[in-house]
From TrEMBL:
GO terms for biological process: regulation of cellular response to heat. This is Uncharacterized protein. Residues 265-292 form a coiled coil. Signal peptide: none annotated. Keywords: Coiled coil. Residues 1-27 are annotated as: Disordered. The keyword Transit peptide does not apply. It comes from the Eukaryota. The lineage of its organism: Eukaryota, Viridiplantae, Streptophyta, Embryophyta, Tracheophyta. Residues 1-10 have a biased composition (Basic and acidic residues). The keyword Coiled coil applies.
């Protein structure tokens, strides 16, 4: 009798395919707690480096319960997933959107899936709007690379072997853009090199130049008592009207400073046009060096963009767009 009482006070644990039930014994009544089981790719989006995101924002973004089940479902056959059985390269970054319900700006993680027989690029762009500079560097210089992703269910040694065998046949092959640079190690880097990570933009050479070329330059004109910040579109804006506006706002004064500002803007426009021209020449050179198989791979490349799913914690996101960045242009579809 006493043994039966002891046994009845033990915690009983049962598991189903959907949830885990824990029954805690009590002298008067029992309570049941439910813990959702982790999905097979529950940590998929978190395995990616948030390219171009400020270091101080990363931890809070990763700690949010963003729901990317739409991305996970895209790899499932029964869901008619567009990524099922494909070789896929994934990268993530953030977009600034407006939460219309709470009337505030929020950073939202976005995942881009590139279906391709080979990595879309081994380079990364480092772009600084403030300094009006652009540099294309090897990913490895920024400690980034395409890393194979193994779903949670296949993390032990035997299961990992089975997963590799299945991946050669019908399972999707997934690679994520990761980074081995850790925030703790930033203190050993110069501030300039720390900031480069926040200026990174995923990069590749498109075979077809369908990008919408920007004709806008960001101006940071050194002046006293404060620098002059503005934008100038060399196709749509008038430099003289811009100068008049800045004079009215008392940001520019005196003929010498106004003349210096005009020359400064013209120089930035020349630099931007030169950068566009050199980028186009580099793209053409890269295409000329490609073999037929590589060209075919680029021609058949598909790009999908995934936003987090709406949840009670995160209301519907406004202003969803196909646009990825100036190098990738637009995705074929967003979800």
């Amino acid at each position: 009798m006493h043994g039966q009482e002891e046994e009845s006070t033990k915690t009983k644990v049962t598991t189903t395919s959907k949830r885990r039930r824990v029954v805690k014994a009590s002298s008067s009544s029992s309570t049941t707690e439910y813990f959702p089981e982790k999905r097979k790719m529950d940590d998929l989006w978190k395995s990616m480096f948030l390219v171009g995101t400020e270091w101080h924002n990363m931890e809070s973004l990763y700690n949010c319960n963003w729901d990317f089940s739409n991305l996970e479902n895209a790899f499932e056959e029964e869901n008619g997933g567009v990524l099922y059985g494909k070789r896929v390269y994934l990268f993530s970054y953030t977009e600034g959107l407006t939460d219309t319900i709470n009337c505030k700006a929020i950073n939202v993680p976005v995942v881009v899936a590139v279906v391709s027989p080979f990595p879309p690029s081994d380079k990364i762009a480092v772009c600084s709007i403030q300094l009006a500079t652009e540099e294309i560097v090897p990913m490895k210089k920024m400690k980034m690379d395409w890393i194979p992703y193994v779903p949670l269910a296949y993390r032990d040694k035997q299961a990992a072997l089975e997963y590799r065998l299945k991946s050669k046949s019908k399972e999707s092959q997934i690679f994520v853009l990761g980074c081995t640079q850790r925030r703790a190690g930033l203190r050993n880097l110069k501030l300039e090199n720390q900031m480069k990570y926040e200026y990174c933009v995923p990069y590749y050479y498109p075979l077809v130049d369908n990008q919408e070329r920007s004709t806008c330059v960001h101006i940071v004109f050194p002046a006293e008592p404060a620098p002059v910040y503005c934008k100038y579109d060399w196709e749509d804006d008038s430099l003289e009207i811009l100068v008049d506006e800045l004079v009215d706002e008392e940001k520019l004064c005196g003929e010498d400073q106004i003349t210096e500002f005009r020359n400064f803007v013209r120089q930035k426009v020349r630099e931007a046009k030169k950068a566009d021209r050199e980028a186009e020449e580099a793209r053409q050179k890269a295409i000329e060096d490609m073999d037929e198989e590589t060209i075919a791979g680029y021609n058949n490349m598909k790009i999908y963009k995934f936003y987090p799913v709406n949840t009670p914690e995160f209301p519907p996101l406004p202003s969803k767009t196909l646009y990825v960045n100036r190098y990738y242009g637009k995705a074929h579809e967003y979800m």
